[in-house]
Queue: 4 jobs
Job 1
Amino acid sequence: MTFPVYYDMPGNITIINDVVHIDMYDREYEMPSGTEPADAEPYYVFKERIVLPLPGFLELYRKMSRVVGKMEAERVLTATAVTGPGFKR
């Protein structure tokens, strides 16, 4: 049996000898003593690396681009929707 895996965001993507490495990160919160959860500062922590051969990565990119295109056409997604805490371009 397999279980869904969730990450908050990808991090570094590197290519070494036609193999793509994608670092995945989760958002965690630093809770200083005596603070409420709403006051916590978020930060990102490395959790796992996904490794794909270059053809598999390119197929993933092609499929994801098609999904993003459909979302933009349906006005579900705009260029400003991909920003937020921890977002780096």
Job 2
Amino acid sequence: MTDMTEFSPDHSSSWLKLMTAYEQYRQALFYWIKEDNTVKYEDLRIELEPPVLSKERDLLRRLLVVNFLSGSDIWDADNTISLIQDALTEVALTEHVEISCLARKALQKIKNTSKRKAIAEKIMNRAAAEAKKEKPDYDIFHNGCLLLLDLNRRNEYLDFIGCYKEFIFLAYGLDEEDLKEMLNALPQKAR
């Protein structure tokens, strides 16, 4: 570790503690980002994949991880997030609103078109499986709709609402007008 930046002693003790902690965080992040992809994948997989058997998932810890991934601190975000895009997509589709929103924000950092297309396919497959259930989780359809919009997947969005419109309506009370407004918010050239 390098020497810490010196701040004026005129600052409050809270400010000095905050800046010291932030600088230590940035240094630790620098070293973690330089880890091999298998190490980063394993660290993220442990937190994002569904819990094994009786092990309970910790929502606060999961919130912390997706908040970290959705933030601006990771400078190789496309690579890091791509490592766990399947698990993160599942989190975006199934988790509580706050966690789902942060997972969607993190997935937006993936710029590679083929990876975004793979996420769109996962959304379509997950929704198809959910639609066959006797008691489907309607949030998956709502969150899938939003994730397709976030990824600018216009064609998949149109297919999705064509197939699952009723499920989307049941999730959060969206109606035909809402879906049109959402579509109009997409850039025309979105694929």
Job 3
Amino acid sequence: MTIYIIAALLPAILDIAFDNKYLGRDISASVRRKKLLPYIVVASMPMFIILGLRGYRVGTDTIQYITHLRRISEMTFSEAWDYSDNEPGLYVLMYLCSRISTDPTFFLCVYALITTFSFIRFVEKNGDGELLTIFFHVTLGSFLFIVTGMRQGLAIAFCLLAVDYSRKRKLLPFLLLMLPAFLTHRSSIMFLIVYFIAHRKLSFSNFFFLALAATVFIAFLDVFQSWFNSALDYNYDIEETGNGGIFLMIVLLMNALSLMLSRQVLEERPDALVLYNVSLIAAVLWIARLFTRTAERPSYYFLPATFAVTAIALKKISDPRKRLILKVLVMLLSVLLLVYRLRSAPSLSPFHFYWE
């Protein structure tokens, strides 16, 4: 468990260190970005180490992916493409890696590089709370999901890279990134909505429309689930669940905090509007999660935006003492939640490296 705690605490400590050194200083955004980048890279290194250098039984499905890799290493490209119906993305990556090395750790390191780079790029493009965004990513479940769910983890990486193009209204590069995401995990088609909601204002009418759409979605969840399965050739069922309420409250509180400070944030960073709209989709999916566990998996496409807007909001609290107290309190509770998750995830903890 120690390495996960290090992965959580390192970005938190670096965030405090960076603020102590640069907060309040009159530096341009470009200079700040240049000085912050080494902090972001260092803060992300434990994620890369966990993903790339883990033992082959760390993560529920890792050993199965290693088995697939060994089979695909003996295939042609066309055989690797056809290895899985309509979702060849991860298996094509396995094939390409196997042309260089059949060592499973090499493939895991390539996967780690893609997913870690994607998240670094995402936080670097959605600034003012970069290190805290990494902290929330590690502590609030989305990183642990990427450790275990490698197909969807790779699809999430492409989706996060596409966010910036939705902000810039560049449809072609957005779709070019969504294509490999879809070919890796078809559920990523839900992320197409980001392009169309990216610039919706945080107005009463739009909130009313979102609430109405969420109500219809949840009321007819079984219908949407059936359509989703039919369209994407999945066989997900409505899985009743008695949990999810605690994390829903966390997501709602994070959205509430970010919205309370949204006026100040958007005056300084109007391009952050896309993050607020994407974060609200995550909240809707976690409300649906009360009724079916199936809604949890697609929520991981959208949760990074929730982490980003919360991190930005914490940075905008004007009183330094209140800001520090709230940050420390949030960090403590987040780490406790991480420990709780790890204690109930024997495939993730205790962690061991591939050579152990």
Job 4
Amino acid sequence: MDIIKKELPPKYKKVIKEGQIYLTIKTTGLQKVKNSIYGIGYAYLEDGKPKYTILNSLLVHEEYILIQKFIEDTKDSNIITTYYGNTFDLPFLVEKMEIYDFTLPPHYEDDMYILVKTLKDELKLKSMSKKHIGDFFQIAEPPLDGKKEIQLYKQALTNKSESKLNIELIENTRKSLFLLLELKHRILPLEEEYLILKKDPFYRINHCKIQGDYLQIKGFTTDEKKEIYHQSITLKTNKESESFFLEFPVKSAPYDKERRCYYTLDQKLINYSSIPFPKEVYPLKLGKIYILKNIKEIAETYLKELL
């Protein structure tokens, strides 16, 4: 197994918090049972300095050692930042861990794909692919796409004596990790504008969804453990996983003048509260997840009402 550990440029210290890791995995295919993990890249803070580690192995039977080393290195982390990781990286990794009887510690999942999707219109993005994101933000050395990654792995596996191919695999994992870090560095000001609700204690939105007649907002928080129920609003915070859950009633409404679907908030609550509430909720559907155009305004209002 190859282990590469190096320091990161100092500028990335701004985007890595204590207990946070940036994660990317490389697999031999998309099927969790049939395929295996051959590469893991992760960035973190060590003694206050930003660093990264890349684990790489062409040997399928070393997958266990690869994952074990990753768990040992990141056992104290509680935030995992990925790009599309909630859909691929983390489910794939967790299923492999279960096979080897490993457990991922409680953590907050920070998927930057959701943030970028939220800002797609504002940024005028044409695609959500890593390649397009890299080109759009003019990030040097974008990684290979998924198909080319697998092709490169197969070439390296067939020609194990060709050390150059193995080096290319490691370098591609490094590029994927640096794309994550650089993307975060570029969009950090936008993230604060759109998703950070409070700074003391800290509340940051991850995603939302409509569940029946309720809108649910989940995210990261440094707040103490709480369970608050007030006027049909629910707020729960979990100190162990540093997460929060906010829920309140909404109603489906007709399309507006621009043919946009929207929801309205509970009128009784609006009349009862002394805080001015936004009247309309505009969702953008991402699979089963709803990202709200005015999500920050709505969530901030409810937190003020509760806290």
